[in-house]
Amino acid sequence: MRLLLKFMCMGALLAQELPLPPTFSPREETDHKLPNGKSQNDEILKADYQRSLKDAADLVELSQSLQKQLQSGGSHVLSLDSLKKTEEIEKLAKKLRGRMLRF
After folding, report:
1. Which residue range is the domain that position 86 belongs to?
2. How many helices and strands in the chain, by DSSP H and E?
3. What one-character DSSP code corresponds to residue 18?
4. Most distant CA atoms of the chain, gap in Å
5. 36: in domain
6. Do 86 and 66 touch, CB atoms closer than 8 A?
7. Is 88 a domain residue?
8. How many domains would you assign to the chain?
């Protein structure tokens, strides 16, 4: 009997709904104005866009120079400069992807 009472109390406690924690959405932030009257979010987006364009151009330039190095080196030659360029390409691509996923 006592065991049955304990199970019933535990069941009643577990059946109660726990309040959900408040959710935070970064989009709900208020948009701050800069001293010149422009939206801070708009200025950040414009700066990110310009950096993304520059990084994409750098990616193209690095990949083309890597392609030329690989073509001129032959099938049995691997230079350290080629490996460094692949690392730079990877870093740029990750930075670009991270910036694009922020918004």
Report:
1. 32-103
2. 3, 0
3. P
4. 86
5. yes
6. yes
7. yes
8. 1
**Angle in degrees, CA 51, 52, 56, rounded to 5:** 120
Q: What is this structure's pTM?
A: 0.61
Cβ atoms of 82 and 69 within 8 Å: the answer is yes
DSSP state of 28: G
* Distance separating alpha carbons of residues 13 and 31, to the nearest angstrom: 43
Residue with tokens 């932030």: 29
Which amino acid type is present at position 26?
A: P
Per residue in 13-57, pLDDT tens?
A: 566 655 666 665 555 557 788 788 788 888 888 999 999 999 999
Q: Which residue has the tokens 């310009």?
A: 50
The first and second tokens of residue 58, run together, are: 């750098």
Q: Read off φ and ψ for residue 73, nearest 5 degrees.
A: -80, -25
Is position 22 within any domain? no
Degrees (nearest 5) of the Cα angle 67, 94, 85?
30
Tell me the average pLDDT of the chain: 81
The pLDDT of residue 8 is above 70: no
